[in-house]
Automatic annotation (TrEMBL):
It comes from the Bacteria. Pfam families: Sugar_tr (PF00083). PROSITE patterns: MFS. This is MFS transporter. It comes from Sphingomonas parva.
């Protein structure tokens, strides 16, 4: 790879653009699931039942993500980072585009939710291979002392993708009435995904392999079965790394997907106003990610994750009085606070998880821990929160966040201070 700041900028742009596109695809589904997928794709027994079914379809991708992590991790550790990243982007983008053409339950019966869940599985499969490769692309090209800041860049793809996804839904809501939005307007963000995927591919096809992967190949042949070597030689790091990410997934999906659905139905807030509040709050997440990268290089990614986990404990306890406080201002205050904290339990992961594993199994290790942790922390979170809110109230939803933070803190304590791999 050509050295110098221009080469670094190209690498960071590729890691950011790719993850932004992937997360845009992922979030337009989450937003549509909260707003329209319930009545469009699932049989009507009650509004709450349809919403639960819609959230359950959201969880299908979390089942697919560790499968994608294993599949793409295998080839990423054996063949290379570049080609694997291109393949994951194509799979994710193709699945997203096809959702735009799906028939509804009214016109196709049970075939509609089956196809929806199948394409959601394809989304999860692609994202399962995307995150680990993007993180490795950044940190394996980082100069000494810059791993935290380079690892933070692909993490910024999450707020960028969220702003693009929800911003587009906000614009459509302003231009279309509810009838047109439900009839066809929700399909537009899925169609636009094709353009964004093309941009991501154009950037990534210009890359070369990372120095760390090239060095690992020069030292020894790649592992025949990276997953087998990972679980045999690095099981403790894999388990603890998996649970260390639980807090970030629980916190994010409860303050975005669940919050949007619950806030615009049960709490009765205007959908356009609520989307605007979420878009403002997500800027605090971006700020948290930026600060976490700086602090990770000053101290360590693990130290920043621990600080973020402690703050997440407190954020969960504030959900009931703030989010359920009755005014959109209090809702926005809680979302801004919680998503700022989210930046500190998410931003350092780009540097933290790869450093748990040697380069020869790093793609598999980082991808598997991130995505299995996603199942535990986020896969069932919106549906579980909906049930808790109906049967106990928002205080118990906040306790869900607090419990997830406690799990991550225990995992981080179990790992202890570790030198970079």
């Amino acid at each position: 790879m050509v050295t110098g700041s221009a080469a670094h900028r190209r690498v960071l742009l590729a890691s950011l653009v790719g993850t932004a596109v992937e997360f845009y695809d992922f979030y337009i589904y989450a937003t549509a699931a909260a707003l329209v997928f319930g009545p469009l794709f699932f049989p009507a027994s009650s509004e709450a039942a349809q919403q639960l079914a819609s959230y359950a379809s959201l969880g299908v991708a979390f089942i697919a993500r560790p499968v994608g992590a294993s599949l793409f991790g295998h080839f990423g550790d054996r063949v290379g980072r570049k080609s694997t990243l291109v393949a994951s982007l194509l799979l994710m983008g193709g699945s997203t585009l096809l959702i735009a053409f799906l028939p509804t339950y009214q016109s196709a019966g049970w075939l509609a939710p089956v196809l929806l869940c199948l394409l959601r599985f394809g989304q999860g499969l692609g994202l399962g291979g995307e995150w680990g490769g993007a993180a490795l692309l950044a940190v394996e090209n980082a100069p000494p002392g810059w791993r935290g800041r380079f690892g933070m860049v692909p993490q910024l793809g999450a707020p960028v993708g969220f702003i693009a996804a929800n911003g587009l839904f906000l614009i459509l809501g302003a231009l279309l009435d509810d009838r047109d939005f439900v009839a066809w307007g929700w399909r537009i963000p899925f169609l636009i995904s094709a353009v964004l995927v093309g941009l991501g591919l154009w950037v990534r096809l210009k890359l070369t392999e990372t120095p760390a992967f090239a060095a690992a190949l020069a030292e020894a042949p790649p592992p025949r079965v990276p997953m087998g070597e990972l679980l045999r030689d690095h099981l403790r790091a894999t388990i603890a790394g998996t649970f260390s990410v639980v807090a970030c997934f629980a916190l994010f999906y409860l303050t975005t997907t669940f919050a949007l659905g619950y806030g615009t139905t049960t709490l009765g807030h205007d959908r356009q106003a609520f989307l605007a509040v979420q878009l403002t709050a997500i800027l605090f997440m971006a700020l948290g990610i930026l600060l976490s990268g700086i602090f990770s290089d000053r101290w360590s990614p693990r130290a920043v994750l621990i600080a973020g986990g402690v703050a997440a404990l407190a954020a969960g306890l504030l959900m009931g009085p703030l989010f359920g406080g009755g005014t959109l201002f209090l809702v926005g205050l809680f979302l801004a606070l919680a998503l700022f904290v989210m930046g500190f339990v998410y931003g350092p992961l780009g540097a933290f998880l790869p450093e748990l594993f040697p380069a020869r199994v790093r793609y598999t290790g980082a991808s598997l821990t991130f995505n299995v942790g996603g199942i535990i922390g986020g896969g069932a979170a919106p549906a579980a929160a909906q049930w808790l809110a109906v049967h106990g109230g928002l205080f118990f939803v906040g306790l869900y966040i607090t419990a997830a933070a406690a799990i991550s803190l225990v995992a981080l304590a179990a790992l202890g201070a570790r030198p970079a791999a």
